[in-house]
Amino acid sequence: MHLPKNALEIFKTAMFIGIFAVWLPAVMIAQHINNGNRLQFSWKKVLAGCPAWMRHSACAIFIYAFANFFLSVAGGMTGLRMFSGHWMIFYGTAFCIFFSSWNLPSILTPRHCPAGHEVGHGNNFCPVCGLPADHSSQDA
């Protein structure tokens, strides 16, 4: 079945606009998980709620997308083939972020030490006072 050129243009536009609809909330969730610290951003923290196969698949999609893009450019291809990998990166990574926060909701709630300082989810002790972090809000 061959789609009319107009339908392909509508599809490409919808896929491009859709990236913003899913990616902006995903970035906000990822920043929240990392306590807004862009200098020490950790995908390991963000994807902590994902099973190992999902994290590995996300890495494989990154590799595929870049290989697909460069092979498409080298082969002179344009259009859907060239950008399909990029769509996979954005939609797939957003799905992983949403799934992680749904599967392990404790990564969205801040932890505190007994003195009231906020403690990152990767830390067992408060970076300010050295007291042990409260583990009562974490899922086992």
Description:
By secondary structure, the protein is mainly α. 57% of the residues lie in helices and 3% in strands. It contains 4 helices and 2 strands, in the order ααααββ. The protein has helices at residues 5-33, 43-46, 52-74, 80-103; strands spanning 111-112, 118-119. A two-stranded antiparallel ribbon has the order 1-2. A hairpin with a 5-residue loop joins strand 1 (111-112) and strand 2 (118-119). Helix 3 (52-74) packs antiparallel against helix 4 (80-103). The longest helix is centred in the first third of the chain and has 29 residues, at 5-33. It is elongated, with a radius of gyration of 20 Å.
SSE layout and pairings?
Blueprint: H1 5-33, H2 43-46, H3 52-74, H4 80-103, E1 111-112, E2 118-119
Antiparallel strand pairs: 1-2
Helix content: 55-70%
Nearest-integer average pLDDT: 86
**Distance, first to last CA:** 51 Å
Q: H/E series, N to C?
A: HHHHEE
Give structural attributes.
140 residues, mainly alpha, two-stranded antiparallel sheet, 2 strands, 57% helix
Write a brief structural summary:
The protein has 140 residues and is mostly helical. 57% of the residues lie in helices and 3% in strands. A two-stranded antiparallel sheet has the order 1-2.
